[in-house]
């Protein structure tokens, strides 16, 4: 929820600026309201001359009634009256000596003549201190009551600086907020520019820090994603170039070897000194070499199409057992030569939606390898079982060579074990690579397991 609110408020630079403007306007309005409020609070419309005279007269009446003695009680009551009416008040003798006074009066004597001159000498103005003089009785003695105050209207000038400050302060805050926002965004833009410059110089491992959720944050995120994609593309291109070089090297080697041998046998067969029997022998060997060369070319062509994605599967519902039996039948002559038997653990009918030609090629390659590299006189176990994650087809046999550490390389193109390289039956090194591509096109998995001399090839299809 917090992140959602943050995205709504700060998910756009436009919204951020709008929010700052709204806050700024609100601060200005609040400042103006406070200033006006202070102005009105300090402008007491009741402090007009007529009102002040009426209040002073009311205070005088109350003094005449209840302040009649020169004691503490009368003095306390006078203080209460002064606080209630907002006046300073003092009761003096004829010479101005203060007998009773309110709390705000700090002197012990009033200059009677001066006050009378002020009171009688000129008209009252709003910026003058207001005075009233009354004759009162304090016990049996004549006394004078002095009442005065500074109208609240005059205090406006004393708070002018505060009102100006309150009016200017929101503007200052607005300027500071806008400055902070612009400075932060400008700094982030500089960081993004520096990041782009670093990336453009070839440092594709550099990442721009993502800050916030606005457009600049999205921009930095997209630049980082683009950098990652660019790095992956360049790595893929380098890998493809390296593989292309390796492919050319391997192809030239694997083509040159049988081709050189083929030419040599054909030259021997064409030699007039060669006997007819030897010619037939050399011709037969040349034919074998030609077939091996053709298979290598066919495998290269097939693998190239699989790698380029040019092959489209023609799936149909078929009995997969029939394809396996067909592959076994095609390799039965070679199996008999090596005294190898097959042990089959599966029912007669197991239907899957696959491309029959491509799956047939997979089984042919896997079973062919099992026949070629199994120990003579051994058994190849073929098992099909249904699991929760799909149909598992396994081919298990005993091999002569132990290569547990290189089991993952079996599916690399042109990878061949030492036995395969030294064997007359050694293949192109593309059979399992082709099988892996075909199985993955079907959405399946192929993997090998080796434990000592027990070798097991597994295929999972859905």
From TrEMBL:
One of its GO terms (molecular function) is phosphorelay sensor kinase activity. Its main location: membrane. SUPFAM superfamilies: ATPase domain of HSP90 chaperone/DNA topoisomerase II/histidine kinase, HAMP domain-like, Homodimeric domain of signal transducing histidine kinase. It catalyses: ATP + protein L-histidine = ADP + protein N-phospho-L-histidine. Its EC number is 2.7.13.3. GO terms for cellular component: plasma membrane. Keywords: ATP-binding, Cell membrane, Kinase, Membrane, Nucleotide-binding, Phosphoprotein, Transferase, Transmembrane, Transmembrane helix, Two-component regulatory system. The keyword Transmembrane applies. The chain crosses the membrane at residues 20-41, 162-182. Residues 250-462 form the Histidine kinase domain. Coiled coil: none annotated. It is found in: Cell membrane. This is histidine kinase. It comes from Clostridium pasteurianum BC1.
């Amino acid at each position: 929820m917090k992140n959602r609110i943050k995205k709504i408020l700060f998910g756009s630079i436009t919204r951020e600026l709008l929010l700052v403007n709204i806050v700024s306007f609100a601060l200005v309005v609040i400042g103006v309201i406070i200033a006006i409020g202070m102005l009105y609070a300090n402008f007491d419309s009741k402090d007009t001359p007529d009102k002040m005279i009426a209040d002073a007269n009311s205070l005088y009446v109350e003094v005449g009634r209840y302040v009649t003695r020169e004691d503490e009680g009368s003095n306390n009551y006078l203080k209460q009256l002064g606080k209630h009416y907002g006046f300073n008040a003092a009761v003096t003798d004829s010479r101005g000596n203060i007998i009773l006074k309110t709390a705000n009066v700090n002197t012990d004597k009033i200059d009677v003549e001066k006050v009378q001159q002020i009171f009688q000498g000129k008209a009252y103005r709003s910026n003058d201190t207001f005075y009233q003089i009354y004759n009162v009785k304090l016990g049996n003695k004549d006394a004078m009551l002095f009442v005065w105050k500074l109208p609240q209207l005059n205090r406006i000038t004393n708070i002018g600086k505060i009102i100006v400050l309150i009016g200017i302060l929101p503007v200052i805050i607005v300027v500071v907020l806008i400055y902070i926002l612009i400075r932060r965004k400008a700094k982030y833009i500089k960081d993004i520019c520096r990041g782009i410059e670093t990336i453009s110089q070839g440092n594709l491992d550099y990442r721009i820090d993502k800050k916030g959720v606005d457009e600049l944050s999205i921009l930095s995120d997209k630049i980082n994603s683009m950098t990652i994609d660019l790095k992956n593309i360049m790595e893929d291109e380098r890998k493809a170039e390296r593989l292309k070089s390796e492919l050319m090297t391997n192809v030239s080697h694997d083509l040159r070897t049988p081709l050189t041998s083929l030419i040599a046998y054909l030259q021997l067969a064409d030699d007039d000194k060669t006997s007819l029997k030897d010619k037939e022998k050399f011709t037969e060997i040349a034919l074998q070499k030609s077939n091996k060369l053709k298979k290598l070319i066919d495998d290269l062509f097939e693998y190239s199409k699989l790698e380029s994605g040019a092959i489209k599967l023609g799936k149909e519902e078929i009995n997969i057992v029939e394809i396996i039996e067909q592959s076994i039948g095609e390799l039965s002559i070679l199996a008999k030569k090596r005294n190898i038997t097959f042990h089959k653990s599966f029912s007669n009918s197991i239907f899957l939606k696959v491309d029959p030609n491509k799956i047939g090629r997979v089984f042919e390659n896997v079973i062919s390898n099992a026949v070629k590299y199994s120990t003579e006189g051994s058994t190849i176990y073929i098992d099909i079982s249904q699991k929760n994650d799909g149909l598992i087809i396994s081919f298990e046999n005993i091999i002569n060579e132990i290569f547990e550490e290189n089991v993952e390389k079996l599916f690399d193109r042109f990878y061949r074990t030492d036995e395969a390289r030294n064997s007359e039956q050694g293949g192109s090194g593309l059979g399992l690579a082709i099988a892996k591509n075909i199985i993955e096109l079907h959405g399946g998995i192929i993997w090998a397991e080796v434990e000592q001399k027990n070798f097991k090839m597994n295929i999972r299809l859905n």
